[in-house]
């Protein structure tokens, strides 16, 4: 049934198909994100780093941010700093970093501050998006 753990194998097969439209991949990735809690970080990390679809990588970045924790922080940092990622995927990764709360938020701030030493307008835009997501913590 859709929404149950039994649907995960079929949804994961859809995500692997190279010829589906972005919106189909987006919906399948969102469904996996909603259903899958156990092992979700291990599932979404390769999608975020390697999937051909920008839509799937965006959902994966957001899912990794929702999972949170130190491992998620490292994954998002790596993806955010990858120059071959699209601007949109990096933006979602920045927002996901900003959404990680508690002590990890301070680590996210440090990651973003280091990354934004570049004098690039795209980086500044991402920094600003993350600062909004961080709220009162902000960037130092």
Automatic annotation (TrEMBL):
InterPro entries: ARM-like, ARM-type_fold. Signal peptide: none annotated. This is HEAT repeat domain-containing protein. It comes from Zooxanthella nutricula.
């Amino acid at each position: 049934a859709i929404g149950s753990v039994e649907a995960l194998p079929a949804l994961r097969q859809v995500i692997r198909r190279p010829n589906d439209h972005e919106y189909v991949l987006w919906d399948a990735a969102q469904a996996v994100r909603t259903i899958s809690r156990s092992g979700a970080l291990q599932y979404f990390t390769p999608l975020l780093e390697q999937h051909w679809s920008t839509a799937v990588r965006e959902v994966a970045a957001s899912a990794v941010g929702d999972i949170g924790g130190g491992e998620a922080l490292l994954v998002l940092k790596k993806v955010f700093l990858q120059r071959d990622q699209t601007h949109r995927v990096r933006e979602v990764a920045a927002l996901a970093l900003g959404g990680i709360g508690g002590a990890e938020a301070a680590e996210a701030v440090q990651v973003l501050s280091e990354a934004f030493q570049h004098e690039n307008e795209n980086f500044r835009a991402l920094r600003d998006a993350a600062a909004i997501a961080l709220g009162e913590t902000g960037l130092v």
